[in-house]
From TrEMBL:
The keyword Transmembrane applies. Interacts with claudin-11/CLDN11 and integrins. Pfam families: Tetraspanin (PF00335). It is found in: Membrane. It is a multi-pass membrane protein. The gene is TSPAN3. The lineage of its organism: Eukaryota, Metazoa, Chordata, Craniata, Vertebrata. Regulates the proliferation and migration of oligodendrocytes, a process essential for normal myelination and repair. InterPro entries: Tetraspanin/Peripherin, Tetraspanin_animals, Tetraspanin_CS, Tetraspanin_EC2_sf. This is Tetraspanin. The chain crosses the membrane at residues 12-36, 48-71, 83-107, 208-235.
Length: 253
């Protein structure tokens, strides 16, 4: 009965090590996705400390690949030292992922105030030319998120660009994709996106941070199961004489 329990724990442990390798790839992907998205929205959110959870989660993903390798070798070779090292590293990574979750919630709460502070400045510097980074950022966001202005398209009337052009129109990036004849004119508001960009940028950034939080929570739970199985194998190996004989290939006298 004891041997069956140990064998089951070992099987689960080997399976979890394979999951760790898959998790390593997923965590690195999530971290990279945060970096890429931040690059698209960095004009609206200057706080680079928001990237700390992404940096940590990429580091954890890299470490999980090594953990999976150590865990597989330790489980197959029945190494007490290897399994103990495996448990200790898993515990450290588990604590790190808890920190990632906490940081994720902290920075997620800061997104709204940060975007609100920055977006006003970005729209004021818009000049409609491609070489200008702020102008490209605004046009990109309006096309991608299907929005126009800060709260709605009427916000453009308060910008320097609108006053200088004097043509009573907003950027073409405000035009709905279905409006093929749209030229940005305020005389045809039905052709323009009605929703403002601020709320959608905030939602986008907060959703991204939630991806990091859920990824960290999910794999923290898997690591907890991995630690439990490794501890069971270690404890049974120390206390069950039948298991010692199974490992060494010995027989009862």
């Amino acid at each position: 009965m004891g041997q069956c329990g140990i064998t089951s724990s070992k099987t689960v442990l080997v399976f979890l090590n394979l999951i760790f390798w898959a998790a390593a790839g997923i965590l690195c992907y999530v971290g990279a996705y945060v970096f890429i998205t931040y690059d698209d929205y960095d004009h609206f959110f200057e706080d680079v400390y928001t990237l700390i959870p992404a940096v940590v989660i990429i580091a954890v993903g890299t470490l999980l690949f090594i953990i999976g390798l150590i865990g597989c070798c330790a489980t197959i070779r029945e190494s007490r030292c290897g399994l103990a090292t495996f448990v200790i590293i898993l515990l450290l990574v588990f604590i790190t992922e808890v920190v990632v979750v906490v940081l994720g919630y902290v920075y997620r709460a800061k997104v709204e105030s940060e975007v609100d502070r920055r977006i006003q400045k970005v729209y004021k510097t818009y000049n409609g030319t491609s070489p200008d980074a702020a102008s490209r950022a605004i046009d990109y966001v309006q096309r991608q998120l299907h929005c126009c202005g800060i709260h709605n398209y009427s916000d453009w009337e308060n910008t320097d660009w609108f006053k200088e052009t004097k043509n009573q129109s907003v950027p073409l990036s405000c035009c709905r994709t279905s409006a093929s004849t749209c030229n940005g004119s305020l005389a045809h508001p039905a052709d323009l996106y009605s929703e403002g960009c601020e709320a959608l940028v905030v939602k986008k950034l907060q959703d991204i941070m939630m991806y990091v939080i859920w990824a960290a929570l999910t794999f923290a739970a898997i690591q907890l199961l991995g630690m439990l199985c490794a501890c069971i194998v270690l404890c049974r190996r120390s206390r069950d004489p039948a298991y010692e004989l199974l490992i060494t290939g010995g027989t009862y006298a």
